[in-house]
Specification:
The complex is a heterodimer of chains A (about 120) and B (about 110).
Chain A lengths: L2 E5 L2 E3 L5 E8 L8 E6 L5 E7 L6 E3 L7 E6 L4 E6 L8 E8 L10 E4 L3 E5 L2
Parallel strand pairs in A: 2-11
Antiparallel strand pairs in A: 1-3, 3-8, 4-5, 4-9, 5-6, 7-8, 9-10, 9-11
Chain B lengths: L8 E4 L5 E6 L10 E6 L6 E4 L13 E6 L2 E6 L8 E9 L4 E4 L3 E5 L1
Parallel strand pairs in B: 1-9
Antiparallel strand pairs in B: 2-6, 3-4, 3-7, 5-6, 7-8, 7-9
Classes of the chains: A mainly beta (about 120), B mainly beta (about 110).
Chain lengths: ~120, ~110
């Protein structure tokens, strides 16, 4: 059974940084593309970033480009999201999601999701 | 404001057929497959439909997807009380070079 467990969320002041992690199990992590998706309070889902297998390719939504960095460690079956220059509008539940393919580009194939971790940005 | 447009709410009685629409443009639904996700309270989102009309293993055939032009639909037949939750459509957007979601439709079973 695929399991994705996010961690690292919490309360942070505007302008500060936070790093999220996602531990994966139940599948060959290194063979699949992975994503980060968030849901702000009272709003819908928003794709943030995707990374292909072998980290060959990464992509970001305009709202986080230049501030967030997605990475992966296949030896540790882990996905990461480094978030810098955080803003109050970044307050959300952050989900990691497994793609059905090894590439993230072109398509919306979020096959499995974690339970999410809450990030609150406030002074 | 979401790139894909969904009605904010939909409701039906047990056993009824319910349809949720998702409207886009030529840069998303008009040029790529659509996927649908179910997000029940307190749970992780779940993939219901991919490639517009394909069901992952384990998803009951009560759920079906279709698309025409710049619009897509999710149909739920034999509506059940445990279908209550939020439903999202998604598709790749060529203009934004990334996946985009609809705003979500809250399904209520009366």
């Amino acid at each position: 059974e695929v399991q994705l467990v996010e961690s690292g969320g919490g309360f942070v002041q505007p302008g500060r940084s936070l790093s999220l992690s996602c531990g994966a199990s139940g599948f060959s992590f290194e063979e699949y593309a992975m994503h980060w998706v968030r849901q702000s309070p009272g709003k819908g889902l928003e794709w943030l970033a995707g990374i292909s297998w072998r980290s060959n390719s990464r992509g970001y939504a305009e709202s986080v480009k230049g501030r967030f960095t997605i990475s992966r460690d296949d030896d540790k079956n882990s996905l990461f999201l480094q978030m810098n220059s955080l803003r109050p509008e970044d307050t959300a539940v952050y989900y990691c999601a497994k793609d059905m393919r090894n590439g993230w580009y072109r398509g919306a194939y979020f096959e499995s999701w974690g339970q999410g971790t809450l990030v609150t940005v406030s002074s | 404001q979401s790139v894909l447009t969904q009605p904010p709410s939909a409701s039906g009685t047990p056993g009824q057929r319910l349809t949720i629409s998702c409207s886009g443009t030529s840069s998303n639904i008009g040029s790529d497959f659509v996927s649908w996700y179910q997000h029940l309270p307190g749970t992780a989102p779940k993939l219901l439909i991919y490639r517009t009309n394909q069901r992952p293993s384990g998803v009951p055939d009560r759920f079906s997807g279709s698309a025409s032009g710049y619009s897509a639909s999710l149909a739920i037949t034999g509506l059940r009380s445990d279908d209550e939750g939020e439903y999202y459509c998604a598709a790749w957007d060529d203009s934004l070079s990334g996946p985009v979601f609809g705003g979500g439709t809250k399904v209520t079973v009366l």
